Amino acid sequence: MSVPRVPGPRRVDASMDLLNQILRAPVDPDYARVAARVAPADRRRPRGHQWWLALVLVLAGTLFAVGALQTDRARPVQANERTELIARIQAAEAEQDDVRGQVQDLDAQIGRLRSGALGSDDASRALEAQIDEVGPAVGLAPVTGPGVVVVVDDAPSTGDDARDQVLDLDLQVLANGLWTSGAEAVSINGHRLSALTAIRGAGDAITVDYRSLTRPYRVEAIGDPRTLQARLAESAAGAWWNDLAQNRDMTYQTSDASRLVLDSDPGITLRYARTPDR
Amino acid sequence: MIPLIGLALGIVLGLLLQPTLPLGLQPYLPIAIVAALDALFGAFRAYLEGTFTDRVFVVSFVSNVLIAALIVWVGDQIGVGSQLSTGVVVVLGIRIFTNVAAIRRVLFHA
């Protein structure tokens, strides 16, 4: 005679079985089992095992000590690794600067060779004039002139709240605002912006031309000093940054500058060239 | 008394001799320590409940430590070492907390 097993109502905490088991049986069940089997008097007088007990406890103590020592020992190693990494980053950045200088030298050389090759007839002079006109605008040539300096920075009481920090988007908006306000050349922390420059966030830092920036961010723009600042204030970028300055307490200062020097963008390379039809 | 002396002696020995663990075993030491803590607190609770037997303690201590390290080692071999060690720490951590709570209730009647 078999009674059909009727599945009873499911326990509410059926899915927590594992946790329940851990919570209910935290002590090795063998303790209870042996305790039930051996008379209490025998348990009180344990002989041979006493030494094992002492040995295991010595072992446990050693384990703790070794663990603590090991963590302690690993700490300076990690600090060393960190400083070493920082040194390597700095070395790589210095190397990058070197290479950039080399690029600028070579650019100047290209310019000289180009004017040498162009000769002095009318067509060549027209081409050269065109190069001189377009060069500063695209960031190929260094430019000097009056303009506007905008200094922006994170809010002073910045915690981990990313909304109180300058984001790559904010700098993009600012740069685009300066362009639309009539700036002829823009640079951020000395990195000249061209049509190929990326302003991006990478980890905690903002990168321009794949170089990370350090706060505060100093945006320089060359343009008509009489109108640039006013037009920036009226533009969408001005409104954006006023909002950030007022509601998020970020630094946003604009000032006129009588003479700014912006380097050329080393990221611009010659991709396409042809000899002029003579 | 012997247990406390043994424990203190072990700590002093470890600090004085400063034995270096082979590099391959170092990742398993923290897990082994957590397992050892679990066995110790379990034993103390059993002692308070009057069911303590040193043979069970010795066996459970050694097997706890070895199995915890072994689980993590196997996890390392199959590429889930960190997840498995998290799991071991969670399970043993819950047990340690439960045991310590029970010990506290017995000792302080609170």
Structure write-up:
The complex is a heterodimer of chains A (278) and B (110). Chain A is 51% helix and 16% strand. Chain A is α+β, with helices and mostly antiparallel strands. The model of chain A has no long low-confidence stretch (mean pLDDT 81). Chain B has 110 residues and is an all-alpha fold. In chain B, helix 2 runs parallel beside helix 4.
How many H/I helical runs of chain B? Answer: 4
Low-confidence stretches of chain B: none
Which strands sit side by side, in order, in the main sheet of chain A? 3-2-7-1-8
Strand tally of chain B = 0
Strand content of chain B: under 5%
Class by helix and strand content of chain A? alpha+beta
Beta-strand proportion of chain A: 15-25%
> So what's the overall shape of chain A?
elongated
- Give the helix tally of chain A: 8
- The quaternary organization reads as heterodimer
- Mean pLDDT figure of chain A: 81
Overall pLDDT metric of chain B: 86
Largest sheet of chain A: 5 strands, antiparallel
**Total discrete domains of chain B:** 1
What is the C-alpha radius of gyration of chain B, as a whole number of Å?
Answer: 16 Å
Uncertain ranges of chain A: none
Offer a quick outline of the entry.
Chain A has 278 residues and is α+β, with helices and mostly antiparallel strands.
Fold topology:
The complex is a heterodimer of chains A (278) and B (110).
Chain A: H1 17-24, H2 29-37, H3 40-44, H4 49-118, H5 122-138, E1 143-153, H6 168-180, E2 185-188, E3 191-192, E4 199-202, E5 205-208, E6 211-212, E7 217-222, H7 228-234, H8 236-248, E8 251-262
Antiparallel strand pairs in A: 1-7, 1-8, 2-3, 2-7, 4-5, 5-6
Helix pairs in contact in A: 6-8, 7-8
Chain B: H1 2-17, H2 29-48, H3 54-78, H4 81-108
Helix pairs in contact in B: 2-3, 2-4, 3-4
